[in-house]
Amino acid sequence: MSDVFISYARSSAAEAGAMVQILQSWGYDVWWDAELPPNRDYADVIEERLSTAKAVLVLWSAEAVKSQWVRSEADRARSAQKLVQLTLDGAALPMPFDRVQLADLACWNGTDEFPGWRKVMTSIAELAGPAQRATPPGSVEEASAQKLRICVLPFANMSDDAQQEYFSDGISEDIITDLSKVSALSVVARNTAFTFKGKHVDVPAIARQLQVGHVLEGSVRKSGNQVRITAQLIDASTGGHVWAERYDRQLDDVFALQDEISLAIVDALKLTLLPQEKQAIARRGTENAEAYDLYLMARRYYVSGRDGERRGLEPIIRLCERATEIDPNYARAWALMAVAQTALHFIHGKTGESGFIAVERAVLLDPNLAEAHAVRARHMWQNGDAESARAEIEVALRLDPESFEANAEGGRLAWIEHRFQDAASFFEKAAELGEESVADPGMLLCAFDALGDEEGVRRAARMTLDRAERALAKDPNNGSALGFGVNALGALGEAERAREWIDKALLVEPDNMTMRYNFACFASARLHDPDQAVDLLRPVFETATSWFLNYANNDADLDPVRHSAGYQSILRAAQARLSAAP
Question: What mean pLDDT is predicted for residues 341-364?
Fold first, then answer.
């Protein structure tokens, strides 16, 4: 087993050799094809080394983009979540690699001091473990390597009410966002930091794993209008406190308090904050603490794994409506309201607000809000303008490649258009960003299945089932978790257990149409039972909206039953009903 496998085109052999030497000098075991043994088949050695490496470093160039070998190796690494990539000449990357983090090494000077190379080393360290090259404790080398990289762990909810966890999570996320605006700091991404949520924290071990010099941890206690926040900045090398403070404030002071914490960290690290960075930290979506609290509560409903569930969407709308009444200029609240209204309108046929007015208001208030452009794409697709819908997704991802909403919506659009490789890339990213989402790893499973990627199907199925079981432990009637969990069980060969889930779920919630639809997809794609699939779909089609029917007619999971007499019969009945409707 090697730490790093290097993939490159022949024209980049010199650069690849130089990188091998640098990585080896840092203590990594590196393999590249200059080391092919003479007595073994070329393809067998590549396959063995590629599958066992902890990290795969792909050197993109104009020639590499055209190379079937490089693209194949990069795709295998991406599917195994161990891809590290860089560009040597700025060549445009093919999809889906253009949506994965990329280090720019154009004009590389051949040393490990080059800025883009530091990004490569950080990514390799996260996959293959920290470098073993020794540097004297307290040296300038050690300080420059560590002091500027920080991880903000999720702040613990110390409130008497466990339901207040949405607030402590929101505080943590905002501090991560604020510190990310400081150019002298490298901040561990939110989705990585939140993998440690609720776990015993061994700060030195976390620091070694993430290659950070400092860790920020803390707690939040909210009671009525009172907020207490404690925060400690820890030096990873010594375990000692660089800075610690406790704040007791009114809820109305929460924004000033977040600014104060972020600025205190910058000061403790002896960094110089640029004027524009200080302004960026102080810029908020709202200055009203009550509206902010309502938005955080609504977002908790949104990310709780009830994708498309009517009873999960309605509270979001009520909370966001109240937030926008308090602050009519709160763009994020308008965008989240639009997400819920759009789903209720298109999926469940709710009359009244379709989400269009809310999303246009959000874009008007903040044209740089990625989630607003993402939900706008669904409206464009529904109106028959697929080209504009794809353009809106591109805008959203340009504004924020880490947007959960943009990646999830991009995946839905790609899936419905049968662009399965794109769908897999989008859903993979969305599943990573939304750690409680069941739908996104569930759809990732479907995309891998459509691509014939059996290893990807199993990996996505395990992720989906794990999240479904956690969601069902909180709410046994979570229809979305049941629907996607059943498909995961089928993919893992547990068909009988899947049937048990279906039988119990339909006894408890026979009118949950989203759940029924997902069960029908399972019966079609996994059980190859057209009769059961049609029986499950019949009540769904009896109430389906035109959008939902259009979605079903393009859903690859229903391809095995689409031409059966039963399916065609319920489809014609649904189309006749919709044609006769006002």
Answer: 87
Query: How many angstroms separate the CA atoms of 137 and 581, rounded?
Result: 75
Q: Parallel, antiparallel, or unpaired for β 83-87 and 102-104?
A: parallel
CA distance 227 to 250: 6
263 vs 133 pLDDT, higher one? 263
Q: Are 183 and 277 spatial neighbours (Cβ–Cβ below 8 Å)?
A: yes
pTM: 0.65
SS3 content of the chain, % helix, strand, coil (to 5): 60, 10, 30
Q: Whole-angstrom Cα distance, residue 540 to residue 347?
A: 11
DSSP states along 30-89: EE-GGG--TTS-HHHHHHHHHHH-SEEEEEE-HHHHH-HHHHHHHHHHHHTT-EEEEESS
Q: Distance between CA atoms of 371 and 299, rounded to whole angstroms? A: 12
pLDDT score, position 306 = 59
Residue 451: its pLDDT value, please? 92
C-alpha distances (whole Å) from 509 to each of 169, 437, 477, 502, 505 are 31, 21, 8, 10, 6
From CA 426, how far away is CA 438, in angstroms rounded?
14
Q: What is the mean pLDDT of residues 342-346?
A: 86
- Rounded to an integer, the average pLDDT of 4-31 is 84
Q: DSSP 3-state assignment of 202?
A: coil
Q: Which of 89, 127, 141, 114 is nearest to 18 (CA)?
A: 114
Average pLDDT, the chain: 84
Query: What's 463-499 look like in SS3?
Result: HHHHHHHHHHHHCCCCHHHHHHHHHHHHHCCCHHHHH
CB 408 within 8 A of CB 303: no
Confidence band for 213, pLDDT divided at 50, 70 and 90: confident
CA-CA-CA-CA torsion sign (380, 381, 384, 390)? positive
SS3 199: coil
Please report the pLDDT score of residue 36 as a whole number: 56
Looking at residue 555, what is its pLDDT?
86
Weakest mean pLDDT among 116-130, 239-253, 277-291: 277-291
399 closest CA partner among 366, 421, 422 = 366
Q: Write out the two tokens for 517.
A: 């639809």
3-state secondary structure (DSSP) of residue 215? strand
